[in-house]
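User: Some background: our group keeps a shared notebook of sequences we're curious about, and every so often someone picks one and asks for a predicted structure to add to the entry. Today it's my turn. The entry only has the sequence so far, pasted here. Could you supply the structure so I can complete it?
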Amino acid sequence: MHKSFTKVSGLSLCFGSLISLVTMALHPAGGSVEHIIRIRHVLIFSHSLGIACLPFMGFGAWGLSCLLQTNNKASLLSLFVFCLGLVAAMIAATVNGLILPQFLSDLTARPVDTSITNSIVRYGHHINVSTANIFIFATCISILIWCLMIIQTQKLPKAAGYLGISLLGFGLIGLVVKANFTDLYGFRIFVAGLATWLTTTGIRMIMKGKLENKNAG
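Assistant: Of course. Here's the predicted structure to add to the notebook entry:
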């Protein structure tokens, strides 16, 4: 693998992770139909930002998988699982952050039964919860595989692997105590943990790429 790819993909991983944190900081809480219509511009902007960060995270994940690649290609499995999670995140952001606010705004511009609009909002909520669960489980599985491979191959410092496993352990404790990671505040905590691991791993990839380029020169 070309050394500059390690550096560039690490930068991409850091950038995408930091943008995801900005997205969650801007993400407003949901509510009634009137509330969604009132904050629709903030919803559209924050979710557009969230969608924009996904390709950067995917590219960074590709670089990480290539770096950790072994003969059994298990790192590529982790990449595919991670991309499945990114697709789920894109669907959730598109439906709830782009489609729903605009649709409700157009729908309520004329007389409509309140029960219909409330049903649409509940439907969007169920889509959001389902896709959020896919994203959470997919990213957790992929990070677990990456962490085990980091520890096994030592192509990155073992501390990165142990950090990821520790964060997954805290997440498991959260599930045991019935923490809800699909509501806004629970999802913010999850994204913060995910971004922490991806950013620190991306920094190590950048440092590794620089070091190898220096040694090659």
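Suggested note for the entry: Residues 12 and 151 are 23 Å apart (CA to CA). The two ends are 16 Å apart (CA to CA).
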